[in-house]
Amino acid sequence: MPSPTALLHSQPIAQRIDALLDLSRQHAERFCSPDAWLARQRYLAQHPTSIVVMKCMDGRIHIPHATRTPLGIITPFRNLGGIFDLGWPYLGELLTESVLHAANNGRATLMLITYHFSSGHQARGCAGFNCDTDAAKAHAYAIAQQAGELFGHDHQQVYPLVCGFETDSDAMIIHGQGGAVLDIRDEVGQCASELPAKLANLCPDMPDDIQRDLLPLLVGNLAHVSELIGVARELEIEHREWVICIGRGFDFLHLPNTALIIGPYGPDLAAPIATAASIIDANMRAGRIPEDGFMLLASTPYQHSGVDRARAELKSRFLSAFAEQVIRLHHPKLAEKMRRHTAVVHWPTRRMDSLDASSASS
């Protein structure tokens, strides 16, 4: 039987868009529920280390789900292929702002720098690196080196940690000093109480408080991976993306092969937008998605009403218009099938508010 995701891909564009926006509303409702709010408060009281994750836009890499961590604890940075450069001005500012906010509140920062791969089939790896796992891993190490240059090489305040994610099993692979590795798949059937000693040996320079707050992720991932053993999973290797997302605030979107997410971090946004449009066009031509349309979703998060929200609205509208211009230039026929949706996200509640929605032909 086809998965719900596969069934969604075959629906008319209006129904697909409604389903996606409904997913956003459901995410905000869960995030704001009393039990979710209390779970976050309790978790942060016990594990105050700030955790940021640099990751690919691939919907399979859902770290909170795979580690059984309450929503809102982990701050994601998502981009096509998980490709970043901390020298990019906006990305560097956002990351530094996050680190300073944590430091001012007496909290260290754990920076998980991820790459992903499939052990069952190379073609299920990261398309951003042409499924070359070694290249993806090398890029993750390059980001870790930049983090040391930015925040200090002693790693006492900010600890950059290269972490693989095996998408067939949802297992994390932690890379430590001297090429040592802790693969959660190897821990299945072992006692979770052994993980603290293994982590300490793996990363002897990691501060005790960061080790303490990383361990729940590893324990949660071990439980998650163990539970999936023997469970039939649709690994979904076929590209069926029908959404181009530009901006930030898409943490509700973890449907595999649905969206191409372009973070507004790099100095050249036109190239990844054109690449994303090429993928959508190829999906239509191959019959993997209907030819009746695709969605362009622009989003910017904001914290406060007033100027902060106004700035977010202006930025979302700019990103939407810029993306449309690029798509019309490189794929004029495809642009006629575009459904633009512009929004802002109230980050404390994860509520997405629509600013406008229109088809390209309107």
Strand content: 15-25%
Strands ordered across the widest β-sheet: 2-1-3-4-5-6
* Count of β-strands: 11
What's the architecture of the largest domain, going by CATH? 3-Layer(aba) Sandwich
Largest sheet: 6 strands, mixed
Estimate nothing, just give the exact number of structural domains.
Answer: 2
User: What is the CATH fold-level name of the largest domain?
Assistant: Beta-carbonic Anhydrase, Chain A
**Radius of gyration, taken over Cα atoms and rounded to an integer in Å:** 20 Å
Name the poorly predicted regions.
Answer: none
Averaged pLDDT: 91
| Name of the level-1 CATH class of the largest domain | Alpha Beta
Distance between the termini: 37 Å
**Basic shape:** globular
Task: Give the SSE string.
Answer: HHHEHEHEHEEEHHEEHEHHEE
Indicate the structural class.
Answer: alpha/beta
Q: Portion of residues in helices?
A: 40-55%
What is the number of helical segments per DSSP (H or I, 4+ residues)? 11
